[in-house]
Write a structure and sequence with these properties.
Layout: E1 20-21, E2 24-25, H1 31-47, H2 51-65, E3 71-73, H3 75-81, E4 85-90, H4 100-113, E5 118-123, H5 127-139, E6 142-148, H6 149-154, H7 156-164, E7 168-172, H8 179-192, E8 197-199, H9 210-233, E9 239-243, H10 248-254, E10 264-272, H11 283-286, E11 288-292, E12 295-299, H12 324-331, E13 335-341, H13 342-356, H14 362-375, E14 383-388, H15 396-402, H16 406-409
Parallel strand pairs: 4-14, 5-6, 5-8, 6-7, 9-10, 9-14, 10-13
Antiparallel strand pairs: 1-2, 3-4, 11-12
Helix pairs in contact: 2-4, 3-13, 4-5, 4-9, 5-7, 9-10, 13-14
Length: about 425
């Protein structure tokens, strides 16, 4: 019989009826969207426990996207690092190559039940865009994806995938031409026709109910991982680690362990090139409370409250805000937020590829890079579970062109 460990119930699984996780979240909306967002909230609350909806979503998760994803012991990586054993939750093995399909199936199912004809979204690395285009194709809805020019160039394979799947990819050329500007453009397009379309937000950000709804759809990762780890090892992990941009993959796996106080939970932000403004996207580390895209959160902002330019080598992490539940978890000190630099991520990208035959997404490589550093300081009896949120096919051309292996082989890699 599989081992179970009872959870202690802590006050971590909010929001309240207005969509606030502590002081963060809510819905700061133009009048024209208040009624539309309430319709989405009401519809989601009606269907989330509807047996027919749950059955359909579960069926698609199991037969279409390939759940459950396995937990894998990275033996060679662990031995090379020394110290703690490193385990990976293999969300990279999902159909479309990342965790994003988990909430995209749920959002598109919701949109279809609401009678919507089209879904609109933003994307950075392209994983959310590909997953949404996939779900829209599967369920027969139109799909428009807004993507910054910089990311269109960096993530060309994912752009082509979206187009093959039938989505319209709309390049965004203003501002920093990255994720924040893609969100702005997608919201503006949504405002033009909120009746027949639904904005399918790609992370645990945005106005209520999206941080709650995306969290709920992603919580399958944490539920699976907790039981799988118990089955494999007979105990819970000492550390659970995930990268944090907007925060969907992280809150997905964290949710399975939030009520286990003996488990240390770490969110890893993009430290980029360093702490200067515009050189990173480490919102929880350097940000202050503010409002962006219809919700309140920690925000990288100037003295006037305007979002600052942000940067990360990982297109899916370069967002100046972060999910409101993460902000709350930081404030109550349930989750610790650290940074990994571009170099940390690149070294981890090559290390995991060479040692385990697994090419990680640059986003996920931030979590791997942090785990490598921490594991070396831990004992061999201790364990780290990392959410490997996506695979690196989309990053191959960019990494090999700009950061060739030879530049890191001399002394930076675990394996030479």
């Amino acid at each position: 019989m599989a081992k179970t460990i009872e959870k202690k119930v802590l006050n971590t699984q909010q929001p309240d009826e207005k969509g606030f996780f502590g002081n963060y979240g809510g819905a700061y909306l133009p009048p024209s969207l208040v009624g539309v967002m309430q319709e989405i909230t009401d519809s989601y609350m009606q269907i989330k426990d509807d047996p027919a909806f749950v059955e359909e979503l579960t069926y698609l998760q199991q037969t279409y996207s390939g759940r459950p994803s396995p937990v894998y012991y990275a033996k060679r990586l662990s031995e090379a690092v020394g110290g703690a054993k490193i385990y990976l939750k293999r969300e990279d093995l999902n159909h479309t190559g990342a965790h994003k399909i988990n909430h995209c199936l749920g959002e598109v199912l919701l949109a279809k039940r609401m009678g919507k004809k089209k879904v609109i979204a933003e994307t950075g690395a392209g994983q959310h865009g590909v997953a949404l285009a996939t779900a829209a194709a599967l369920l027969g809805l139109e799909c428009d994806i807004y993507m910054g020019d910089v990311d269109v160039a960096k993530q060309a394979p994912n752009v082509r995938r979206m187009q093959v799947l039938g989505a319209k990819v709309v390049p965004v050329s203003r501002g920093t031409r990255t994720l924040k500007d893609a969100v702005d453009a997608a919201f503006e397009a949504y405002l033009q026709d909120p009746v027949t379309t639904m904005y399918a937000i790609g992370s645990v950000v945005g106005p209520h109910p999206f941080p709650m709804m995306v969290r709920d759809f992603q919580s399958v990762v944490g539920r699976e991982a907790r039981q799988q780890f118990l089955d494999m090892t007979g105990s819970l992990p000492n550390h659970v680690v995930a990268c944090v941009g907007g925060g969907s993959n992280a809150i997905g796996i964290f949710s399975g362990f939030l009520d286990d106080p003996e488990v240390d939970i770490i969110g890893v932000e993009p430290g980029g090139r360093g702490p200067a403004n515009g050189d990173n996207a480490a919102t929880m580390t350097y940000g202050t409370p503010g409002i962006i895209h219809g919700f309140s959160c920690y925000l990288l902002q100037d003295k006037d409250g305007e979002p600052l330019p942000v940067y990360s080598i990982a297109s899916g992490l370069d967002y100046p805000g972060v999910g409101p539940q993460h902000c709350y978890l930081k404030d109550i000190k349930r989750v610790k937020y650290e940074v990994a630099t571009d170099r940390d991520a690149l070294v981890a990208f090559y290390d995991l590829s060479r040692l385990e035959g697994i090419i990680p997404a640059l986003e996920s490589a931030h979590a791997i890079g942090y785990a490598i550093k921490v594991a070396a300081k831990m004992s061999p009896e201790q364990t780290i579970l990392v959410n490997l949120s996506g695979r690196g096919d989309k990053d191959m051309d960019y990494v090999m062109e700009h950061y060739p292996l030879e530049a890191y082989e001399e002394q930076k890699l675990l394996v030479k």
